[in-house]
Amino acid sequence: MTNPTAPARLVVLISGAGSTMRAVLDAQHDPGYGARIVAVISDRADAAGLAIAAEAGVPTSVVALADYPDRAEWDRALAEEVARHRPDLVLLAGFMRLIGAPSLSMFGGRIVNTHPALLPSYPGAHGVRDALAGGAKVTGCTVMLVDAGVDTGPIIAQAAVEVWDDDTETSLHERIKTVERGLVTTTVGRMAREGWTVEGRRVTLGTTKGDA
């Protein structure tokens, strides 16, 4: 970062309601939080979170896959739009597309994502359903750095959520999302304030910023 006393510049990618983004917006009212959202980007023009961001005075934009001839062009366009805002951190907050090579090349080690299970257990699109089907008594959520795989990046933080006997996929997911929002907000703030290092698959907070 060019100015270590300034808040970290955070670009948030969303596809839907933006509840996690809203939690970070609320957290940044504390001047000591350490990060500030400088842009919100969606792959969907109808994402409800765009209106929330705009109301908060945050610049928004849409990079929709349908507007590009192929996935490779979209990947490049997304990376360029993110880069335009000079982020220190990129947060995927309910962003429903995989991040391509251009973004990984530009922002590798600085892209944060979440998953509604305790990785490496139950990766993929149906982590909550799979945990229930697997008979898990405890599941939870994971905050991790993004790599080229699907839910395979180095784990930054995790929180556990008990599975109740009468849980459905919906009820369990709602409880996980509540915990997840708090975990993401706390973790991003710590990364911004304290820095982090990555050694193999181990992420340590409280060290040199982004020394991946």
TrEMBL record:
Return the SUPFAM superfamilies for the record. Answer: Formyltransferase
Asked if the record carries the keyword Endoplasmic reticulum, the reply is: no
**Which InterPro entries does the entry mention?**
Formyl_transf_N (IPR002376), Formyl_transf_N_sf (IPR036477), GART (IPR004607), GART_AS (IPR001555)
Which controlled-vocabulary keywords does the entry list? Purine biosynthesis, Transferase
Can you give the residue ranges of the Formyl transferase N-terminal domain?
9-184
Known catalytic reactions: N(1)-(5-phospho-beta-D-ribosyl)glycinamide + (6R)-10-formyltetrahydrofolate = N(2)-formyl-N(1)-(5-phospho-beta-D-ribosyl)glycinamide + (6S)-5,6,7,8-tetrahydrofolate + H(+)
Q: State the pathway, as annotated in the record.
A: Purine metabolism; IMP biosynthesis via de novo pathway; N(2)-formyl-N(1)-(5-phospho-D-ribosyl)glycinamide from N(1)-(5-phospho-D-ribosyl)glycinamide (10-formyl THF route): step 1/1
The entry lists its GO molecular-function terms as: phosphoribosylglycinamide formyltransferase activity
Residues the record marks as active site: H115
Q: Which domain of life is it from?
A: Bacteria
Q: Name one Pfam family in it.
A: Formyl_trans_N
Which protein family is named in the record?
A: Belongs to the GART family.
HAMAP family assigned: PurN (MF_01930)
Q: What is this protein called?
A: Phosphoribosylglycinamide formyltransferase
Q: Which organism is it from?
A: Demequina muriae
